[in-house]
Each structure stands twice: as C-alpha cells, then as structure tokens.
C-alpha cells in the first residue's frame, strides 16, 4: 500500500503517506537540506552582489604566490 517516490534530495525511496511528515522527502534531514540549499542560494546571490570582485582578488593573491 505504501507508495514511494524518489527523494528529491538523495533519490532514496520516500514514502508518500501520512506517516511520512517530510514527504516528498525521505526524512527530516533531506527536507531541511533541500530548504537550506535554496536559502543559501538566495544569500549567495546577494552576497556576491555586495562583496564584489576586488575582495575576491585580494584573497586569491596570497594563495597563488605560495
Ligand atoms: Zn532523502
């Protein structure tokens, strides 16, 4: 009776049943990871806009010289 789908995060079978509160994910962890990913993406986009290019150059220079 248990219908399963591939978890969007890890592709493991996730039970599509009321017993699985985290459907369509297989577990709470996968659900949080998936949520966290798009939240981080949102931050990364605004971060890149404000941090800009010059900061990146400053950080990369000492590493490349080593
Ligand atoms: Zn999963």
Describe the structure.
With 66 residues, the protein is mainly alpha-helical. It has one domain (4-52): 2-Layer Sandwich (Erythroid Transcription Factor GATA-1, Chain A). Helix content is 58%, strand content 9%. It has one helix at residues 28-65; strands spanning 4-6, 13-15. Strands 1-2 form a two-stranded antiparallel sheet. Strand 1 and strand 2 (13-15) form a beta hairpin. The longest helix has 38 residues, at 28-65. The N and C termini lie far apart (61 Å). The mean pLDDT is 78. It binds zinc ion. Zinc ion is lined by residues 7, 9-10, 12, 25-27, 30.
Characteristic terms for this protein:
single chain, 66 residues, mainly alpha, Erythroid Transcription Factor GATA-1, Chain A, two-stranded antiparallel sheet, binds zinc ion
């Amino acid at each position: 009776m248990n219908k399963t789908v591939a978890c969007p995060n890890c592709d493991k079978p996730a039970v599509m049943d009321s017993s699985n509160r985290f459907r369509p994910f297989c577990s709470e962890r996968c659900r949080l990871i998936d949520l966290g990913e798009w939240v981080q993406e949102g931050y990364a986009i605004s971060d890149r806009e404000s941090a800009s290019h010059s900061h990146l150059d400053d950080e990369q220079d000492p590493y490349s010289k080593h």
